[in-house]
Design a protein that fits this description.
- With 129 residues, this protein is of the alpha/beta class.
- It has one domain: Chitobiase/beta-hexosaminidase domain 2-like (Chitobiase, domain 2, 2-Layer Sandwich), CATH 3.30.379.
- The protein has helices spanning 17-32, 82-97; strands at residues 8-10, 39-41, 50-55, 65-70, 74-79, 105-107.
- Strands 2-1-3-5-4-6 form a six-stranded mixed sheet, with helices on one face.
- A hairpin with a 3-residue loop joins strand 4 and strand 5.
- Helix 1 runs parallel beside helix 2 (82-97).
- The protein starts with 7 loop residues before the first strand and ends in a 22-residue tail after the last strand.
- 34% of the residues are buried.
Length: 129
C-alpha cells in the first residue's frame, strides 16, 4: 500500500485532540508527498482507500501502536492512547518518506522517555502534546 493513495481518513466522532492532530498531519503529509488531500472526519468512509485512526486501551499500553494493512484498501493505525496514534502516524509518514511499503507493525517505547522526530515546522493547526 502506498500512503499517497489514501483518499479518506476516518476518526471517531469523539476523537481526542491528539488523534485530530495526528489525522491533520497525516492528511498534510499525504498531500505533500504527491497525493490528493484526503477527507477527514467521523464519516470519511466514502474513499476507496481509507486510513482509520483510533485507540484500543485493552490490547495496547499507553504510547504503543499497531499498524494494520488490509489488502491495500485500508490502513488502520491504532494506539494505546492518543500519543500512540501519533507515534503510529509518525511511523507511517517516515516509511512513506523513505518510499517503503506500509506493512503490519506493533511497537511501543522501549525506554521511559520518548520524543517525536520533527522534520520541519509543524502545520499551523496547532500542536497538542
Amino acid at each position: 500500500m502506498r500512503m499517497t493513495a489514501i483518499d479518506a481518513i476516518r476518526i471517531p466522532g469523539d476523537a481526542s485532540p491528539r488523534i485530530r492532530t495526528a489525522a491533520a498531519e497525516l492528511a498534510r503529509w499525504i498531500e505533500k508527498l504527491g497525493g490528493t488531500r484526503p477527507t477527514t472526519g467521523a464519516h470519511s468512509d466514502s474513499g476507496r482507500i481509507t486510513a482509520w485512526l483510533d485507540t484500543d486501551r485493552v490490547d495496547l499500553k499507553p504510547e504503543h501502536f499497531r499498524i494494520e494493512v488490509n489488502d491495500g484498501a485500508a490502513l488502520r493505525i491504532i494506539g494505546g492512547d492518543g500519543r500512540g496514534v501519533r507515534y503510529g502516524v509518525q511511523e507511517c509518514i517516515d516509511r512513506a518518506r523513505r518510499n517503503q511499503a506500509m506493512t503490519p507493525l506493533t511497537d511501543g517505547p522501549h525506554f521511559p522517555m520518548r520524543a517525536l522526530r520533527m522534520w520541519e515546522t509543524p502545520s499551523k493547526q496547532g500542536l497538542v502534546s
